[in-house]
Every structure is written in C-alpha cells, then in structure tokens.
Amino acid sequence: MAINPPVDATRTQAWAQLQQHFNQLQQQGISLRQWFAQDPQRVQRMSFDAGDLHFDLSKNLITPETLQLLANLGRQVGLEQRIQDQYHGVHINNTEDRAVLHTALRRPESDEGKFVVDGQDTVKDVREVLNRIYDFARKVRSGEWTGITGRRITTVVNIGIGGSDLGPSMAYEALKPYADAGITARYVSNIDPNDLAEKTRDLDPETTLFIIVSKTFTTLETLTNARCARTWLLGSLRAKGAIFGDGQDADAVRRHFVAVSTALDKVEAFGIDPANAFGFWNWVGGRYSVDSAVGTSLAVVLGPDNFENFLQGFHAIDEYFASTPLEQNVVALLGLMNVWYVNFFGAASHAVLPYDQYLHRFPAYLQQLTMESNGKSVRWDGTPVTYQTGEIFWGEPGTNGQHAFYQLIHQGTRLIPADFIAFANTPHPVKDGGQDVHELFLANYLAQTRALAFGKTADEVRAEGTPEAIVPARIFSGNRPTTSIFGDTLTPYALGELIALYEHITLVEGTVWGLDSYDQWGVELGKVLAKEITPAISQDDSALAQQDASTQSLIQFYRAHRR
Mind listing the pLDDT tens digit for each residue in 253-310? Predict the structure, then answer.
C-alpha cells in the first residue's frame, strides 16, 4: 500500500540500545532522589523553553543518556523527514491519500505562494477564508449583523461533533476572559435531545445565532441537531409573535444560521445563504481543525485580533518543532518519552493535569486528538503492529483531581506519567486574608510533582510518630514521572502553543509506531450499524429479526418501556 513503508522501530539499533539502557536502569534501581543528589545540573540540563512555555523534564524516569537515545530513535525511524513531509504537503495520510496540512492554517500571510500543494496555494486560500470569517465576526460583534427582528446577537450556538465541537468548546472555555463583545457561546454535539434542549432552554431566539459545523453537511448527529435547532428557532419566534407565517421562515433561517462547510448546495437546501458558509479542506482533519473555520464561534466571541494571536501561538510551536534538533527539541522529546513509557515501562495511560480552571476541557480535547490519531493496530502500510501503541489520555483540572484520582497516581500499582500545566498569572487575583489564593493554588501544583517524584520513606513516616501498623499505608514510593509545563498567562497565544504542542507529540508517537495518525476508520463501523439498527428500534420487525440476539433483547426492552 505505502510507497515508503514505516521503519519498524523495534528493529532499529536505537531501540536495542534503549532496551539495554532500560534494563541497566532497572538493575541499578531507578531513584529520582539519588539522581537529583548526584547531579546538581539535572534540572538545568532537562529544562527547555519553546515559545513562551517553560518545560521541566527532570522529574521523569530518564537520564541525559535516555534523551540522547530517544533522539537517536527519532532519527532512525525517519522522524525529521516525516516532519518536513507533513509541513510540505506530502500525502502522509496514507489510507485516504491526503496531505496533512493543519500547520498551513496558522501560517502568516507573508507565506502566500510558498506552500503550493497539489496545485493549491494553501496559505492564500486559508487567508481568504480567514478574512471572510473576520469580516463576519466584526459584523456580529458590532451589531451590524442582527437577527430577524433587528436585535443584536448575544449568544452563538455551535452545532458540531468530534473535532467540530471539542476544539472550539474547549478553547471557548479556556479563553472566556477574552470574550469582550457581550456575546457568549454554547456548544451542542450530542444527538441526545437533552443536549439541545438544555442549551436552548433559556435562550432568546431573537438574539441567538447558530453555526452549523459539518464539512460535508451530511454528519448524522450534526444535521439532526441542526434541523431540531431550526424547528426550535421558528417555533420560538412564532410563539413570541416575532414572525408570522411561512413567508418569514426562510428569512429567519438566513439571519440566524450560518455554516462551516464546503457543501454549498446542501447548505443552501437547508436554508442558509451560501455566502455565509465558511469552508476548509480535506487536508484538515476534524481533530486538527480548531484553528480553521471550525473556530468561527471563537472569532465571533473573542474577536479577530485574539483569534489571530491564537494562530500565532500555534505557528510559534510549529516553527520551533520543525527547526530544532531532536536533542534540544522538547516537543519531539515529549513524544519520544511517551513511547519510552508505553513500550518500555508498560504504561497504558497518560494524565494531563492543568492547574487552571479555564483549561477544564483540555484533557477531553486531547482524548480525541491523541486516541483517535494513534489508537491503531495497523501500520500505515497495512501491516499489523507487533508492539503496544496508543495511550489513554485523561485528566481533570487542579486540586479537583487531588481529591479524586491522585491516590491512584501516588500509591497505585500502575505507572501513570503525568503532565502538569500551570500559569504564573491569573485574570482573577484574590487574597484570602493575607494569602494570595493563586499562590496557594500553585503551591499545590509544585507540591504534587515533588511528592510524586520523591515520595516518602518508611523512616520519614515513622519520624512523624505514625504507629508501626499504619506505616505501610502512608509510604509513597516516589519515582512517579511528571513533566511540568509552566507559562506566563493563559492567553490565546499560549493556548495555541499548548494545542500545537500536543498535535506534534501525536505525530512523533505515530511516526515511531508507524501509524497513519490522520485517519479514523475506527469510528465508522458503529455509525453504519446505527443506521441499520434505527428502523428496528420502533417499527420494522424485519429489521429487528436481522439483529443479533443481544441487540434484539435490548430493543424488546426498549419497546416495552418506551412511553
């Protein structure tokens, strides 16, 4: 299938050297306490800066030799070439024969003409769409764009699913302090009617704008919700006496609905003016699309200037990743370290723990980005993998997790590498008496990585006067790996940096494992079967008879209990 089949990482010299290195570390005993004591320069040698983010890798189960061996592995599997291939439009999405060019979404206007791929001036086309989005956003923000009754828009409802929801909804939550036009956003993704019902329950239809996000305008969940939203809008406007009769329905839809789609015929058939449709290209995968037209809701709520800063943050990490040698490239090293933990330590999951409440949806966003990309058991040439791939990404913000699942990370039997993310400044500084609350919060951020790294020995527990019978329960083994990511302030720029960071980490892992990180065939089968099962649920006995025994039984339960 592939012209250039992947290098089997496990057959490289670097992999063999990493295995030997791992065995030596195990024999000698891994002790972060000892490593820190023996190497006063450890933190300095394992700290990096990319963009305006600071990274401390010193509390990971690595030595300087580990990092060099991991860089060697990256070279031997062709990581440097694959990075360049991605940036320049080689069709590295093998199963769909597509380029992978989300990095073009955030290139500056000065790059027009420099990245022509398959005959398309990618940057020029991106900038043309961005300018249209910015013009639209300015009209909504200024009040020039109004609803059917002439009232200005105060709520934007984004209807999409997957990357068309997770990206913009996460970014909206992260950047709420920058919403400066009196416009809020809501996000509908689940086909469960409860989602749309709750999101529209207290909305005024006269001041609500819907953005329907579906590249093909055929996505089942999105279009179902879009039609239901249209029904809600027209019914609510009629109930208020804002419109009368069918003659005004079409105009109401045109004033209250826009689209992110390239299927202009389907957009028009829905009732949306094609002039108010913003497209993107097949070289942009859904989970890599938040900085495309998929982010239109963000441009409206945050404004074009903030959205442009968002793109600049992405681009800063893009440039760093593409131009920095692997040994000094913290983005690449983080991806390679994930391989180190998965394939040598047997780690099955990876925690992302943002110490910033505004990032509370960031772990959920990363779940799609990482697991849809690298949750594969077949390499990009169609051959089966012979090693573990993928990680379960998960997490919660700040001190919430400390009072929930941190117990497992500290004292459980599973090794769970964790990324801790924090910012030095907060938009809401406050003091509790004389205590700066943000500093109290950051003290927890710092304390947790210290506790995970260095633990607490039995002798230290005894020294506190703990009864001997309880001592084992209060021991912390330490040597639980963490990476600390520290920024100045969670700005649009910084959020762009963080997203790009994990996008590229995903590429690094996928390259080592030989995976096509840009297809997602694993989500298709369930969708197909759902269409087959739907008639069987309520009405079609012949369709019911075609189902397996378990599905039949469950449908029979449904029929018996549905009111």
Answer: 999 999 999 999 999 999 999 999 999 999 999 999 999 999 999 999 999 999 999 9
SS (H, E, C) 27-70: HHCCCHHHHHHHCCCHHHHCEEEECCEEEECCCCCCCHHHHHHH
CA-CA-CA-CA torsion sign (538, 540, 543, 549)? positive
Q: Which of 403, 428, 531, 561 is catalytic?
A: 403
Quick one: angle between helices 79-87 and 304-323, nearest 10? 150
Nearest alpha-carbon partner for 454 in 482, 473, 421: 482
CA of residue 507 relative to chain centroid, distance: 13
How many Cβ atoms from other residues are within 10 Å of residue 97's Cβ? 8
pLDDT at 3: 59
The average pLDDT across 77-102 equals 94
Dmax (CA) for the chain in angstroms is 82
Q: Give the predicted TM-score (pTM) of the model.
A: 0.96
In sequence order, the 6+-apart residues with CB closer than 8 A to the CB of 5 are: 379, 380, 381, 383, 514
Catalytic site includes residue 524 = no
Q: Write the CA distances from 184 to 127, 135, 207, 505, integer angstroms.
A: 25, 19, 11, 32
Kindly name the residue from 114, 240, 431, 527 that is annotated as catalytic.
527
Judge contact between 163 and 287, C-beta under 8 A. Answer: yes
- CA atoms in the 13 A half-sphere facing the CB of 552: 9
Q: Residue holding tokens 């009072």?
A: 403
Residue 423 contacts residue 490 (beta carbons within 8 Å): yes
Residues whose CB falls within 8 Å of the CB of residue 302, separated by 6 or more in sequence, listed in order: 175, 178, 179, 180, 310, 492
Average pLDDT, stretch 32-45?
A: 97
* 173 and 165 Cβ atoms separated by less than 8 Å: no
- How far is the CA of 459 from the CAs of 35, 427, 464, 465, in angstroms? 20, 43, 9, 10
Burial class (CB in 10 A: 0-12, 13-18, 19+), 35: middle
Smallest CA-to-CA distance from 351 within 420, 282, 285, 413 is with 420
**Catalytic-residue membership of 431:** no
**Across-strand partners of 209?**
156
Q: Which of 206, 221, 372, 503 is catalytic?
A: 372
Rounded Cα distance, 310 and 325, in Å = 25
